[in-house]
């Protein structure tokens, strides 16, 4: 039996084993991965007696890897979106008061900032990029703009009492 026939027969055995433990689509993907590894790294192995255990060892490693990846991504303990409670969209008076107080503190702090910081924040809120702000402010170095931005944000945070909340 030539190598192509051997791999075809082996493919069916690998697929049957993988399908007994995984979904059909995932099993077919893993089977293709195993055959690719056999073709790329173990092309020198031609005997069926050596090829079968090698193929199943590679398959086990691939299945373990897929299992670890699913765990890492949190695919096993995901909740259905239909089972989750809907968010309460009604206006909570306590939340509204808290938000109003934060906005008042922010506006008060911004009013205490220097002209350069207020302009910088205005341009950032308008969606301008740092290179655009650099041109508007007539600066030769963009690092100057980054430094001003850092200092302005620090000053604003200090004026807000050290916390954005």
Give the fraction of residues assigned to helices.
Answer: over 70%
Radius of gyration: 31 Å
Spans with pLDDT under 50 lasting ≥5 residues? none
Q: How many independent structural domains?
A: 2
Question: What proportion of the residues form beta strands (DSSP E)?
Answer: under 5%
Order of helices and strands: HHHHHHH
Structure classification:
mainly alpha
Q: Based on CA inertia axes, which overall geometry fits?
A: elongated
Biggest beta-sheet profile:
none
Query: What is the terminal-to-terminal distance?
Result: 73 Å
Whole-number average pLDDT? 87
Tally the helices.
7
Number of E-state strands: 0
Quaternary structure annotation: single chain
Characterise this structure:
The protein has 7 helices and no strands. It is elongated, with a radius of gyration of 31 Å. It has 2 domains: 3-73; 94-159, Orthogonal Bundle (Arc Repressor Mutant, subunit A). It is mostly helical. The longest helix is centred in the middle third of the chain and has 26 residues, at 48-73. 72% of the residues lie in helices and 0% in strands.
């Amino acid at each position: 039996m030539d190598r192509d026939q051997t791999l075809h027969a082996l493919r069916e055995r690998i697929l049957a084993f993988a399908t007994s433990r995984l979904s059909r689509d995932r099993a077919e993907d893993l089977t293709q991965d195993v055959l690719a590894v056999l073709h790329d790294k173990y092309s020198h192995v031609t005997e069926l007696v050596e090829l079968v255990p090698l193929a199943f060892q590679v398959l086990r490693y691939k299945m373990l890897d897929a299992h670890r990846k699913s765990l890492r991504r949190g695919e096993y303990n995901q909740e259905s979106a239909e089972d989750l409670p809907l968010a309460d969209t009604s206006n909570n008076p306590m939340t509204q008061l808290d938000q109003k107080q934060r906005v008042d503190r922010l506006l008060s702090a911004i009013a205490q900032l220097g002209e350069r910081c207020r302009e910088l924040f205005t341009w950032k809120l308008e969606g301008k990029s740092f290179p655009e702000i650099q041109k508007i402010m007539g600066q030769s170095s963009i690092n100057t703009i980054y430094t001003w931005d850092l200092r302005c944000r620090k000053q604003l945070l200090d004026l807000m009492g050290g916390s954005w909340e």
